[in-house]
Amino acid sequence: MAESPLSDSPYEVLGVPADADAAALRLAYRRALRTAHPDTGGDPVRFHAVQRAWLLVGTPEARAAFDRGLRGPTSAPTREAWAPAAPRRPRDSRPLARSYGHPGGLTRELYLARMREWVGRGVEVPDPYDPELVRRAPRDIRHILADALTEEATARALSTLGIAYTVWHDVATDAAGPGLPPKLDHLVLGPTGLFAIQSEDWGGPVAMKRGELVGEALGGERPFRALAARAKAIGRAARVKPTALVIVVPDEYAAEPLEVGGSVRGAVVALVRSSRLASAVREGLPGSAHLGGTEVMEVRSRLQAVVRFA
Known about the structure:
Shape: globular
Protein name: Nuclease-like protein
Largest sheet: 7 strands, mixed
InterPro entries: DnaJ_domain (IPR001623), J_dom_sf (IPR036869)
Domain J: 9-70
Strand order of the largest sheet: 1-2-3-4-7-9-8
Radius of gyration: 21 Å
Strand content: 15-25%
Helix content: 25-40%
Oligomer: single chain
Number of strands: 9
Pfam families: DnaJ (PF00226)
Organism: Agromyces ramosus
Distance between the termini: 32 Å
């Protein structure tokens, strides 16, 4: 199970309450293992999740450690996994992409505000990233934190593109998604095109279908439509056209590393795994227009003149 605020707890994976006794836990594990086993037509991803859940709570020692939030090879994440990471110096001297803005900053502000609202006015929240508190929060609040983490992971990947690329994070736009702040997560410009990128973690698998994402976890959202609206608002102001619309999700939620799904207003749309993003941008998406050196400079100047940060 991924260290995501939206990941099911081991008890949820096994289908038992957190206070289930050892016998009930063992019975639930055996049933879940039997129904999820690939040899009997089960889902390999689900089978792995059941095994992982048992490692976390299958013995009295492991269960006690998990319930206390202790960290180990098979334990739950500590608050450091979800709190803002301290800046780190690059390990080598290779030039990084030029980056502007604060990735995940506005999303984290929204998370903190919603967490305080949920806990209650006047109630002190000593640590809003405490794993026990996060697990008890409503799903929509955990979703906001999961998105912030994904935005930060995307920013780290994009920083490795090199000096030929310019990246803007948290770009303000008047086109917002449902329950989300009015911003585009990432805008990337380089010789392989102008990419409008949204980082998302819905806590479940998604797939491309007729130029849009589908999946139970989406809850009726139309992510590419929302992304296209954000990109259009920025492009109109700068008099430029994005060449690609990209949604990035954690690796385990996309069946393919890169899935292209047609185009919207001339921009290729693609679903990309987080680990594949940097190479996808460097190589360019299939069918997406590349830009010449003079064109890149002109587009950068236009964007720099209009980009504002959320």
